Amino acid sequence: MGALSVEQSQEKKCPNCERVYGADLEYCPFDGGVLSSPSASGAMPAPSGYSVGQTVADKYTILSTPKVGQHCCVYKARDVHANRVVAFKVLHAEHKNDKNINTRFQNEGYLLSSLTHPHIISIHDFGITKEGTQFMALKWVEGMSLGDLMKQDRKVDPKRVSVAFAQVCDALSAVHQLMKIHGSLTPNHILLTPAGSADIVTLIDFSRSQSLGIKQEAPPDLNFSEMARGLLYASPESMMGEPLDDRSDIYSLGCILYEALSGIAPFEGPNGLDIRQKHLTKKPTAPSAVTPGVRINQYVDQVILKALEKSPDKRHQTIEKFARDFKGAMAS
Fold first, then answer.
1. Are 181 and 238 in contact (CB under 8 A)?
2. How far is the C-alpha of 178 from the C-alpha of 50, rounded, in Å?
3. Residue 205 covered by a domain
4. Residues pairing with 139 in the sheet
5. In terms of domains, do 152 and 264 share one?
């Protein structure tokens, strides 16, 4: 293999979606993957360092290379005791002494253990590996994320969006009834499993979940790489470090709905500061006006734009109301 050019050596590639970025980014803005520079020796090893065939925590045999995120790796693995395939989610070794990250991981495990819902990821087990890092074993879900689908098709068929949206709202309703919020909704946290003419939705990644009415411990940073944690979908109040409630999830879901139907996020920009400023001050363009030819009626526009109001008091006040309004608008 020939030597890399200077331009190539300054590029970084996401191991998940294979997008290529400049050298200044650490995480993929699209899916949060840890970016690595091309090299003759191949891709950067996963931070947890588990190999295919290795058994972890005495009963989880690794079946595939992981999807690598900012704080965790997720492997396909087999629980050899229960004889089932699981998603084995484990913190990066570098975070095992980080109290903040460990507390969030543990809280995610507690929340999932308290939820039994057809559209929320199921947890089988969670604990600590022999190396001292926290892990959880989750239900393995076949299919693709809404983010993957949007990458593939850009704009998603409105009927398909409507069916998936209703299931996401149903899942969030169960979370909100526990006086919790998801806290970091993005298209990559909505899994779609084909089932006949529709999809079965599974909502995942509750690592930023918290109780209603309290401030986030760490509001989204403004580094461009923080888009990986949902800056494109973060509510204005989350970026201001204000207390959050279920209406923050409604805003994030409104951003996702907008992008799924139009093919463009409501607020995009070259860096985190620009995106933050737009979330805080700019009035979004109606989804139907963004891309000509998209079948979005004025009532759908109104429902989505209501979800994207800067003030939580002007949005739909519950996820159930958001769901009913969108369903009615789609039927108009």
1. no
2. 35
3. yes
4. 86
5. yes
Q: What is the DSSP string of 40-55?
A: TT-SPPPTT-PPTT-E
169 shares a domain with 207: yes
Q: Is 81 exposed, middle or buried (0-12, 13-18, 19+ CB in 10 A)?
A: exposed
* Residue 134 in this model has a pLDDT that exceeds 80: yes
Distance CA 230, CA 205 (A): 12
Instruction: Tell me the residue range of the domain where 68 lies.
Output: 55-139
What pLDDT, on the 0 to 100 scale, is given for residue 271?
A: 79
Among 180-194, 226-240, 306-320, where is mean pLDDT lowest?
226-240
Evaluate if residue 9 carries a pLDDT over 60. Answer: no
Residue 177, SS3 per DSSP:
helix
Region of poorest pLDDT, from 2-6, 12-16, 139-143, 166-170: 2-6
Q: Find all residues with CB under 8 Å of 116, minimum gap 6, and list them.
A: 122
Q: Which of 29-33, 46-50, 63-67, 319-323 has the highest mean pLDDT?
A: 319-323
Long-range contacts of 69-74 (CB under 8 A, 24+ apart): 69/32, 69/33, 69/34, 69/228, 70/27, 70/32, 70/34, 70/228, 70/229, 71/95, 71/101, 71/105, 71/207, 72/105, 72/207, 73/46, 73/47, 73/48
Question: pLDDT tens for residues 77-90?
Answer: 999 999 999 999 99
Residue at which a domain ends, from 139, 170, 193 = 139
**Based on the domain organization, do 124 and 149 belong to the same domain?**
no
Size (the chain), residues: 332
| Single pTM value for the model | 0.84
Residues 257 and 317 in one domain: yes
